[in-house]
Amino acid sequence: MADFRLKEGYDIPLIGEPADSVSAAPRPSTLALKPSEFRGVKIRLLVDEGDVVKAGSPLGCVKNREQQIFTAPMAGTVKAVVRGARRTLMEIIIKPDEASDAVSFRQHDAVAISGLSRDIVLEQLLKSGLFNVFQQRPFGNVADPGVTPRSIFVSAFDTAPLAADTALIVRGNEAAFQAGLDVASRLASGKVHLSVDGRRFDLPKAFSEANNVELHRFSGPHPAGCVGVQIHHIDPIKHRRDVVWTTTVQGLILIGRLFLEGRYVPDITIALSGSAVTAPQHYRTVVGANIASITNGNVEHGELRYISGDVLTGTTSTPDGHLNMKPSTLTVIPEATESEFLGWALPGFGRLSKYRTYPSAVLGGKKFAPDTKLNGGHRAFVATGYYEQVLPMDIYPMYLLKSILAQDFDEMEGLGILEVTEEEFALCEYACPSKVNVQQIIRDGLDLVEYDG
Hints:
Oligomer: single chain
């Protein structure tokens, strides 16, 4: 077991941590598949409004890779197909019915899974739609089944602000998680790397005693739990053809249930957190559930921002929106709607700052409830050294960002663009005194290298 102790980073002290308990959320009135969250592919619709579907029925497929499909999490009726600009497919909304009809897949004995061939495993994952829980690096796209990764990386802990506790997610799902690891071990030419929280001494046995993996311990503040940081320290990506896959604990549990039970079981655990939540806690719900089924009666009144994911990397949603498939956190915080009179001149005892901008920086142990204000406008993009303080990777973040803005392809690759996605740079954006949209710059750079480099 390798032990990595990271010093760079920052744990943002926010109010609204979810309680160490799991409650059952009400049955969702609608659920949705969001093709827009699967980066790097274009999806062709296979259903129409009014069609009746089973759990595991195809809803769409990847253009030019028709064997790679996206399926319904639950049985029901296709209520709406939502399209955006240029008829981009945004959501397929399903109204679930009382029946639990599900497409049948081949059921496997737990012991036999680790002996299955890659072709058998891949075929079942593609037919069920659960292959899409894997992401591919470099570029952070949905995985390509035509590519064999050299390794698969799984982060068994999340250091993002107010994130879900993976120990609660895996509780009661130990057999399914191990089966998911066994399946993943059949897909890569090399190892499955499982990274655990080195700061915890009460690791679930599902993590500490996992089979068919190489175990690593990471200690340190956020972003120590980001899988890209872990890849960088364990076995870094060297060039664009050096492909690895990543997935989540929740994704492996879904896969494990598929192989053990022979059907798509969409049950997941998510954390409802944030300072605008009355009683932050974990909930059992289903993939793509409508947000109102989780938040109803448990959020404050007023203007709120609903975020599918954490406050650094999540996507903005609405009270009548739906959960994304991948994040295990739903965050709700106050929405800033009014400017603050002479805010710059106030002492700022209740205002969060990583640096000594306000007296609050020296109040150890205090947690804050920030809203969505930027607290300043765009400023000159100058070297400050702040990025290096929060990014535990051996790269030069400022120079990488400037090489992207200059569209210097050789410089981008030399400075490590292939090793990162937006997730690793999210804390840099938070700490940026210039208010630069760092994550968007990184995504623009990745797209430039992928399509034009």
